[in-house]
Amino acid sequence: MTRVALICISPLQHDSRVLRHAALLAHAGYEVRIFAQPPLPEAPPTPVTALPGPGSDTRVRLGMVLRQAPASLLPISADLLYWGSATRLAARRELLRFRPDLVIANDWRALPIAYAAKQACGASIIYDSHEFASEEFADSWRWRLLARRHVIRLEERYIREADAVVTVSDGIADALAARYDLARPTVISNTPAWQETAFRPTGNPVTVLYHGAIVPRRGLETLIESVALWPAAFRLVIRGPAQGGFDQHLRTLAGGLGERVTFNPAVPPDQVVPAAAQADIGIFLLSNSTTHARFAMPNKIFEYIQAGLMVISSDLPEIRKVIESAGCGILLDQDTPQAIAACLAGLDASRIDACKRAALGRAGDVNFEAEGSKLLTLTRSVLGQ
């Protein structure tokens, strides 16, 4: 049986893309194993080899300084210092023990590990670039100073070793092709598996939902600040996994808003859409200040649509195409508390319900059943099947 490995140097529990891809390939008859960091889902779709975790936030920052910063002065150092990590060494050791025929490397951190399998056992490589790595945190001067050159060096060194490249949006596909002089990568949108959702009329209160990682640079501070300006009928729910204690910072900001802001724990990936369907509006904020942001096509937009929600989002090109084609939401001219509040003040139940119905009308076209066929076709092509 053909062996397929998915490498994910990050926590697996809420990585719905990796879990969906693994389930699809296992169902197609491949022997699939995921190599990823905990926490793990309670019932993963395939066997998982757990890798050592990243450790404390302090350790992560120290690792960035020690392993990534030298490449800013000496780019070639990235190749050697990349392996100064127990996680990556364990991933390489366990991957070579599995002896895969194909490795799907999720993001740049997994590329050198996949290449080790190509050298050792002739494995083919599919590089799945979830982000535009060379610009991912370009709005942070620390990242530009300490990490960017390291990331570019490794992606540039190993991306051409991949037999195929896939990514999540047209913008990232075009950017990767231009930066590295590649054939245009295949776009496999980060859509959820199809789950039929019934229309739910907007009631009182009107629930605005953010779901996803609770981390900086997602506009969550701005979102909470805006709640005090919202019409009385609207409330905010923030649901997702917290990282680095950022949720405590947000809870402090929301302290004076009482029940108008609620924090809910993350749910398993297969429950994200049903849980979202209890809301009325899905919201997403991201500053249009970097190339990476302009290409963003986050899975939550598709999840909001499948949950039958009206979508309110920052006006970013990839997201604009989806929302305008579906007619299911509003794009914000500005990501300010006042602009968000003004947008909500202009809505009534009939407008929200019209967008919710439009979202459900589009949901049948934007789901993983449609996108997954692209991955199967590409996998068979790379393996010569």
Describe this structure in words.
The chain folds into 2 domains: 3-191 and 368-382, Glycogen Phosphorylase B (Rossmann fold), CATH 3.40.50.2000; 206-363, 3-Layer(aba) Sandwich (Rossmann fold). Helices cover 42% and strands 17% of the residues. It has helices at residues 16-27, 57-68, 77-81, 86-98, 111-121, 141-146, 148-158, 170-180, 220-227, 246-253, 272-276, 291-294, 299-306, 317-326, 337-345, 349-363, 368-382, and strands at residues 3-11, 31-37, 48-50, 102-106, 124-129, 164-167, 186-187, 206-211, 234-239, 261-264, 281-284, 310-314, 329-332. The strands form 2 sheets. The protein has a 7-stranded parallel sheet with strand order 3-2-1-4-5-6-7, sandwiched between helices. The protein has a 6-stranded parallel sheet with strand order 10-9-8-11-12-13, with helices on both faces. Strand 9, helix 10 (246-253) and strand 10 (261-264) form a beta-alpha-beta unit. The two termini are 13 Å apart. The mean pLDDT is 93.
CATH-level-2 architecture of the largest domain: 3-Layer(aba) Sandwich
Which stretches of 5+ consecutive residues score pLDDT under 50? none
Order of strands across the main sheet? 3-2-1-4-5-6-7
pLDDT averaged over residues: 93
Query: How many helices?
Result: 17
Classified in CATH, the superfamily of the largest domain is: Glycogen Phosphorylase B
What is the third-level CATH name, the topology of the largest domain?
Rossmann fold
Helix content: 40-55%
Class by helix and strand content?
alpha/beta
The 3D shape can be described as: globular
CATH level-1 class of the largest domain = Alpha Beta
Distance between the termini: 13 Å
What is the β-strand count? 13
Radius of gyration: 21 Å
Which sheet architecture does the biggest sheet show? 7 strands, parallel
